[in-house]
Amino acid sequence: MTKRSLPLSHVLSKLRKEPSNILKIASFNMEKRPRHEFVCTLARKFDIFLIQEFVGSTDNYTTYQQFSTSHNYQFYSSPSLSRTRANHLLDPQLMPQTGIFLNLKKCSVISQNEITQKIQPQIYCNDIRIRLPTGEMVLIVNAYLPSQPKTAQVIILQQLLPHLQDLQTAYPDLKVIFGGDMNHSMERTPSLEQRLVSSTLDILAALDLVDIGICNPTVFTLPTNHGTLPRRIDRIYVPTLWQPRAFQYQLWRPRGITSSHSLIAAHLVIDMNPTNTFGLRRFQYPLGRLLPLYETQGQITVNPDGTLDEAIAAITQEGLEYIQLHRTLRRIDPEFARSVRDTSTEHLEDSAEASLRSFFQYKSHSAMVFHDLTNVAQGTRANTNADMLRMVTSYYKALYSEPTPGLTDRALKDYLGQIKVSLSAQQAEQLDRPFTQEELTVALKLCNHGTAPGPDGIQYSVLRYHWKQFCPVLVRTGNELLQTGMMPDAFREVLITLIPKRHHSASTDVTHYRPILLINCCLRVVSQAANTRIQSIADTLIGPNQRGFMSNRRMDENLMETRTLLNLIKEAYPKDDASAPERTILMADFNKAFDRVSHRYIRQVLCHMGFGPRMTSFLMLITSGQIGRITINNYVGRSFPLLSGVRQGNPVSPILFNLAIEPLLCRLQQNLIGIPIEYDPLQITIMKYHAFADDVNIYLGDVRDYATTAAELGLFEKASSSLVNTDKSVLYGTLPGFQQGHDPFLPYPRKHLWTRKADSSLEFTDTTYLGIPLNGVLWDSYLRTLPFLCKTQAYQLLRLCVRAMGTNIYVHSKLPFRDLHTPMPSRPLNRVKFAISKVFYGISLKKLYTPLKREGMV
Prior knowledge:
Layout: E1 2-6, E2 22-29, H1 36-43, E3 48-52, H2 58-70, E4 73-77, H3 79-86, E5 98-103, E6 108-112, E7 125-131, E8 137-144, H4 150-170, E9 175-181, H5 194-207, E10 209-211, E11 234-239, E12 246-253, E13 263-269, H6 308-332, H7 334-345, H8 351-360, E14 373-375, E15 380-382, H9 385-399, H10 409-416, H11 425-432, H12 437-446, H13 460-465, H14 467-484, H15 489-492, E16 493-500, E17 513-519, H16 521-541, H17 555-572, E18 584-588, H18 593-596, H19 599-608, H20 613-624, E19 627-632, E20 635-636, E21 640-641, H21 653-671, E22 675-679, E23 682-687, E24 689-692, E25 695-700, H22 704-720, E26 730-733, E27 750-752, E28 754-756, E29 762-764, E30 768-769, E31 772-773, H23 779-783, H24 800-810, H25 815-821, H26 826-839, H27 845-848
Parallel strand pairs: 2-3, 8-9, 16-19, 26-27
Antiparallel strand pairs: 1-12, 2-13, 3-5, 4-5, 6-7, 7-8, 9-11, 10-11, 12-13, 14-15, 16-17, 18-25, 18-26, 19-20, 19-21, 22-23, 24-25, 28-29, 30-31
Helix pairs in contact: 4-5, 6-7, 8-24, 12-16, 16-21, 19-20, 19-21, 21-22
InterPro entries: DNA/RNA_pol_sf, Endo/exonu/phosph_ase_sf, RT_dom
Protein name: CIC11C00000002628
């Protein structure tokens, strides 16, 4: 037989031989083929083997039982087979479609069909509860969801969920393996299957399961069904905590049996040591409560004179009551609970929008699971939840601790003395004025509604739903912050989760994770209103070459100006290297820039720039008056004060950081010689820096700028407690031998800006700025990364208008930005046109790009 093996991104995949303590799980739809001896031979290769469409007649069942007994295996099917055999009937309507082979050397059977016997019809699934050598109790559920009608699949899944939850309640340590032929795909899903996807996600969320194939992104390009419409419909889900156990994932096309399905197999390491548990999910308001059938029932009343904490408590209680109601309904009458849920969710979102996001924006729904963490700098390691929480809390408590002042108050005032920009009294008064309901309403609309909620679990959509009652309370709370400096509890706590940095996904070092700060949405709304005010006067305070997170300024401008500058330097560079002027660019990287900046320094900058007392107090309170708590595997660590940095995730933080770094940029502008931009015979300007938030390019005209830059960076580090990363900051030079040189002032890694080719022309080195290569976009490679013309993943099942909308939003919108800096050559342009002609056969480009309201398609 042939097979394709897809090693997972796990340390065990690097071993040369397979570990002995592994559990082999596989699933295969045999499509009613009478090759039972071949299926039995396949079964011996695995410890748990799920089969679908095996036709559970008495003869077939006997064949599998005899094989199993002779090889220390056991075969199980659904209860309907027992009735058929007892009555000596071969009624095709009662014949089971699923079966499970178990290797009794790797497990012991506790019970069977505890779930299946409670649902109808029973022929489409069966379940076995086993115990592994580790002592772990596992429920195996094998499902074959009928291809038609789709409503039958939904009914089966919705019947399974409450009974699975009941069994987990009875056995809290129970793990679940859920696999088989699902007859629908989870990625790039057509609109007809949206309810199916929703029901599947409900099971995955309730049981904390993850698709074992998700560890390797390549698997999403490989369909498991090779019929008329190849799709990935065969899947195996395992507990999220088992994800790091994965040793290998395989797709087989077995010879000897004709089936349009691939056999899928996963190898998991059986860990003889106890694994970390996964805590209960934190509360998040159930959005189903806001939908039809419920939206007018028993709506809470928010006391307009009450506190913000009381208003949030009332909304939380409403959500908890809804959760309890549905939990009770599922236990008492699952069918009624399903019908209620269908009624309440049918208007949840437009099916076109759901299909669009499902195809073009597929995201993993699995949680980040931690099994062990290290602190390489300190030589420590932790592999339990409690120890990992202690390690990470200690690390971030130190990171966010109050830094030791590098400059005295007098020296800091002198440092800021060169900054001549300041707000007028009228501008300061505008910033200090009380918040209004209109202001916060606009702010709510501007907030990114796709972000996770904060510790209170209340999303933006919940605030919007209760806005008429909630808004006056939030306005009053925001104004109390401005006037009295009183911080409500709802604004104080911040949850900190960790995600691996790019290129460090396999590392366990705590420094290779990026902290994501979850702030309550109500604080983000007020902060967004403050950000809108500050943005209106930011041009007064922030120089024109800082374009990060600034209204009416674009990253494109930095890219175009930088490329223009480099091209002019290259064009003016003489063929005789000896007579070339020295031109150097320092691409400075600040180590944890947003997390390190001193609160004392920020306050001094705000006061120096003329901010009024109320806005200054407000900004400092939401920056320095908070506490953080680390969350790992749904467990939360001890709180600690956040005494440095600005909160990534707070809408006002980017502009606050821009204000904090502006003194450095202003002093560079005043004190550097810089690099002139000349169009013979005119000198247009002299470039001294470009900045996009903390991403700063410093342009050094000659060796005198080295000492000046070093001095300014040193002063900024002392004043703000920031730190330039000496490993990631890079000096790019033009002169021969630059890479081998060394400068005592700027001891950073050195690289040549370009190389001289055989024809004496110059070519930029493989360097990127703001994600764009200096040599230009490699269009052929880039086009291959776009979700375009993917017919093998049900692309053609999407409605035509959804296909057009998604292609415009998620494909074509990415092209102009890069085309602006590297015009697309004719070959890749023709590839795009050819793809359009295939996917939208017979439809003109004019119609494709015309809005729906004008009888177009978008």
